[in-house]
Amino acid sequence: MRSDKKFQIFSHAVLILFSLLALLPMILILTSSLTDNNEIIANGYTYFPKKWSLYAYEYIFKTGNSVIHAYGISVVLTIVGTALALTITTLLAYAISKKGMPGRGVITFLVVFSMLFNGGLVPTYIIYTNVLGIKNSFLSLLIPGLLMNGFNVMLMKSYFVSSIPEEILDAAYIDGAGEVRTFLSVVTPLSKPILATVALFAGIGYWNDWMNGYIYITKRTDLYSVQNLLNRMMQNIQFLSQSSSNIQNANVGLSAIPMASVRMAMAMVGLLPILVVYPFVQKYFVKGITLGGVKG
User: Fold this and answer.
1) Residue 55 and which of 11, 137, 159, 222 are 20 to 30 A apart at CA?
2) Within a 13 Å sphere around the CA of 215, how many CA atoms are in the beta-carbon half?
3) How far is residue 187's CA from residue 163's CA, in Å, rounded to a whole number?
4) Is residue 33 part of a domain?
5) Does the pLDDT of residue 202 top 70, yes or no?
């Protein structure tokens, strides 16, 4: 009994330590983004700044960069992309979880193979631009993410195999339900944990993605997601800093740019929606990961 209590104390201490290791960097990012830029330059980053300032956020939202518009693009992209990716992933995972499906082994092999190898950036770029012709369009942000993540497919497939009893499916078939009715009325309601888990993975992937916009959006800057816009702002600041010696009155202009604090403010602007959404899906996320990884 005493050994169990000691183990509980030890495990709680370890979990608290890991929680602090995850929280402290985010708290430092937040406090640094609210710290006066000159103080950061003079004293470095700190959890307890002497002088607070909102100028970094004012700079992001008031320098002619349409952050609100970029937020709208990111929100629409994340919602549409997550819904489509979740639908495709779920249908594929359910299909390969059925033991009697023809070609099940070949499809499973192809899914696993995609986790290990890919065609590379250049062939992918050629396919999307020359064959599909989606460059400088919203589809160039959406379609690459719809090519399902093999890990998500196998995770969901494992959940269907280990957590959906065959007896329930057989009962639905005996009652006259077909595959579609069984999937919608029986499997889907029982799969909320794994659906929430995969939706979270897909949503974070779409929200944090900047590579597709960086590669495929070369003219339509109005299609920049918030990640692309913040990345461009950061590049502009770095360019001004490196080229200050060649710019007339550069010191005056650069002094108005909160270079140190604006980096942290940009990180918070990109991270905030994830922090808001995650608590609502946390319980499903943990359960989905636990049950989905029981067996393959």
Assistant:
1) 222
2) 16
3) 10
4) no
5) yes
What's the Cα-to-Cα distance from 213 to each of 39, 170, 272, rounded to whole Å? 34, 46, 20
Long-range contacts of 252-259 (CB under 8 A, 24+ apart): 257/59, 258/37, 258/53, 258/55, 258/56, 258/59, 259/37
- Specify the DSSP class assigned to residue 99: T
Q: Give SS3 for 56.
A: helix
Tokens describing residue 102: 């023809």
DSSP-H helix ranges across the chain: 2-33, 37-43, 55-62, 67-97, 104-116, 121-126, 139-146, 150-163, 166-174, 179-182, 188-190, 192-208, 211-216, 226-242, 250-255, 259-292
> Could you tell me the CATH number of the domain that includes residue 150?
1.10.3720.10
Question: Is 38 domain-assigned?
Answer: no
The answer to whether residue 161 sits within a structural domain is yes
Rounded CA-CA distance 172/183 in Å is 10
* Structural domain harbouring 246: 58-292
48-87: pLDDT as tens digits: 888 888 888 887 777 656 788 888 898 999 999 999 999 9
Assess if residue 225 is contained within a domain: yes
Over residues 234-250, the pLDDT tens digits come to 777 776 666 655 555 54
Q: How many domains does the chain have?
A: 1
